Amino acid sequence: MEKLQNKLIGNFEDLNTHIYRQVKQMIWNKTLAPGSKILQEHLAQQLGVSRTPLIKALQRLTSENLVEYIPRHGFYVKKLTLAEMMEIFAVREVVEGVAARAVAEHATDAEIAELKAYFTPFRFNGEWSSEEKKSYLVNDQTFHTRMVEIAGNRLLFQINEMFNIYRFSYQKGLVRPPDETLQEHLDIIAALEKRDPGSAQLLAMRHIQNSRENIARVIKENGSLWGELEV
C-alpha cells in the first residue's frame, strides 16, 4: 500500500513538473507573449490537464519571476521594464565573467575547441545575408549557454537559464551586428586557449556590457524591447 501511495505521489509530482516545463517552454518560444494574460481554462484544456497542476506550475513560474499574479485579475506573463532588463544584464555580466574564468581554469582542450568551433564558419565581410545572421545567432546563443555549462557551476547555469528565457521571449534577432561581436567572441576564446582566467573574465564581462549599453540605446530610440532587432 505504501509503495502504491509513493508511486501515485511520484506520478503527481511528475505531472506538475511536466506542466511546469511545458508552460515555461511556451513562454520561451513566445506562444505566451510578454504581458499577456494566461487564460487558465483554455490553457488547461490545451495541455490536457485540470487547472490544479497548471496553477501549481504558474505559482512556480511566479516564484521564478517569469509570471506575475495580480489579485482579482489572474496570472500574466512577466513583462520587463527597461530597469529590470538592465538589472538582468548586470547579473548576466557577472555570470558570464565567472563562467569564462572557470572555463579558462578547468575546461579541457576539447571543450575550448568546441567553443571556438561555433565561430570558425564566420568571417568579417561587412555584408551578412539573412541566413548567415540566423546561423550566427544560433551559434552565438549556443556558445554562451555551453560556456556556462562547461564552467560546471549549477547556480550559474540556473541563472543563465532564466536569462535565456527572458531573452528569447523578447529578442527577435541579433542585439548587435555580427561584425561587431565576432571579434569579441574570438578575443574571449583566445584568452581561454591561453588559459588566462583574468583576461577571459574581463573580456566576457565587457562583451555583455557592450550589449547591455546597445540595448538601452535601442530601447530609448524605438520605445520597445528588441522589437526592431530582427535578423
From TrEMBL:
PROSITE patterns hit by this protein: HTH_GNTR
Molecular function terms, GO-annotated: DNA binding; DNA-binding transcription factor activity
Every HTH gntR-type domain range: 13-80
Gene3D superfamilies per the UniProt record, alphabetical: GntR ligand-binding domain-like (1.20.120.530), Winged helix-like DNA-binding domain superfamily/Winged helix DNA-binding domain (1.10.10.10)
Provenance organism: Capillibacterium thermochitinicola
Swiss-Prot/TrEMBL keywords: DNA-binding, Transcription, Transcription regulation
InterPro entries assigned: GntR_C (IPR011711), TF_FadR/GntR_C (IPR008920), Tscrpt_reg_HTH_GntR (IPR000524), WH-like_DNA-bd_sf (IPR036388), WH_DNA-bd_sf (IPR036390)
Protein name: GntR family transcriptional regulator
Signal peptide as annotated in the record: none
